[in-house]
Structures are given as structure tokens and as C-alpha cells.
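How it folds:
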Amino acid sequence: MQNSMPPLSALRAFEATARLGSVTAAADELNVTHGAVSRQLKSLDEHFGVALFAKAGRGLVLTHHGEQLQSGVGEAFSRLRDSCAALKHEVEEASFTLACPGSLLARWLIPRLDRLHRDLPELKLQVVVSDTEQPGKPTDASATLAFTEPPWPADIEVIPLMSEQICAVASPALAAHIDPTRPESLFANTLLVTASRPQAWPQWASAKGLEQGALKDALQQGQSFAHLYYLIEAAVAGLGIAIAPTLLVEDELSSGRLIAPWGSIETSARLCLLLPKHANLRRSEPLAEWFKQALKG
């Protein structure tokens, strides 16, 4: 039979009115006007060609036909409510998995992890190490914290947290022999580079007006590390001049274990919270806001 199923919104208004015995109460529960519910009930009477409610004093009672419809509709909406409540409970009880590249995890997130757990206990946060320093690849994690450059991949949601700054750093002993007024003086030293961020040195050199050919020659004589964490430790050990996100060496700069003779430059990259496309932001937005506040500090 064609058109035997009326609109779901009309059935919802009918179920609420039948359960509560009042159009006003149904309107309050559904957060619509009294008139909107009345129109939905009228459309059902017209759809079935019979009256589903009869007046009883100031309220309404179901007619025989209304009781017949309510027997199925009431059970269906009850099961819908139970299913929605169960799913919401499962989502709220599930842990929120945050993936993070190892270097960012070790050098910035872990020292703040205890405070994050205390501030957002309802998140039930679990942190895992990303498989790669390069974000944007499919993952089972609820979100990924990482530096990444636009354009953003089309299949992820991106919440930018802060602009990336990078700096060339050296141990105090090595920095003592560097002229801070002449960035090109770094070419007399071993340059340290990480395979995960080959663009960092060219970006820094371009901002400082250095010749890319000379940089390329210096990098060929330099030393490469698989991860930023090792790169920074090599710089602390005095093995050469490293290029790194300022955020990840701020503790070493503050303590004097590393020196940034030429300061920092801003790149086009951003530290971002990356989410699956169409992700529910209810749980991730408080985390993003927490990161923004922590980064200001």
C-alpha cells in the first residue's frame, strides 16, 4: 500500500501526546510549539481518515483507533529511546584514544599528561604513539595530535592549535664558536637533520636569506636521525646544529642546555588536533581547548 507510513515527526508527536496525555506536555518535551504538535496530530487524523484522540475535560484520551496505533508506535519509540541511550552510554564510557608522534609525546605531552588526566577525567584519555611522524593517514585513534601543513587532507577534520616555529639549536660549547650575526656561519658545523622533516632546514635557510645550494652541500655532509627525539639529544650532546620545532626544545632553551643563536622563524605548519571526518566534536572540543590553554602557558 503506497503512502501507508506517515511522517516520523507526526508519529513522534502522537507518541508523546498519547504517553503524556497532553498536547502542551508533548510540546514541552519535544521543544516545539503547542500549535506544531496540534498540526502534526491533525495530519495523522487526515492520513488515516479517523480521529486518534478525543477530548476528555482539559485533556485528551485515545480513541479505539488511537489505542491501536499507540500499541505499535509506543513500543517502537521506547525501543528507539533505549537504543539511543545505550549507544550514548557506550560512547561516553569508551576511552578517547589520542595518537601522537613519539617526539611530540615524549618532549611535550608526557610532562603535562598527569594534569590533562586531572582536568578532563571524563575523557578517559588513552595515549598511543603514532606509527609515523607524518599525519593524515587513516587511523583507529579518536584523534591525532601532530604538526602538519595545509592543505589539509579532505578525509579528516582539523582543529588548528598554534602556528609552528622552528629554530636552529646548538649546545652551549658549540654555540660559543658561532657568530649570531651571521647565519651562514652554521655551514662550518655539522648539520643535524631528521628524515621525518626534510623541509625544515630549507624553510629556515630561506627565511634567513641563505643560499640553498650551500645548504644542500652542508646537509650532504651532515648527519640524519630517524626521529626528532634523537636529533635533539644529538644537539644536546654537541654533535652538531639541529633544526627543530621551538615547542619541543623550549625546556632545553630555558635551562641553557641548548642555545638558539638566530632565534625562531614561523613556518606554514600548524600544531593540530586531527579527527576522522564527521567526528562527534562533543568530546574532542574540550581536549582541543585544553591544548590551546596549555600551549599559551
DSSP finds eleven helices and ten strands in the chain. The first strand starts at residue 53 and ends at 56. Residues 64-93 form the longest helix (30 residues).
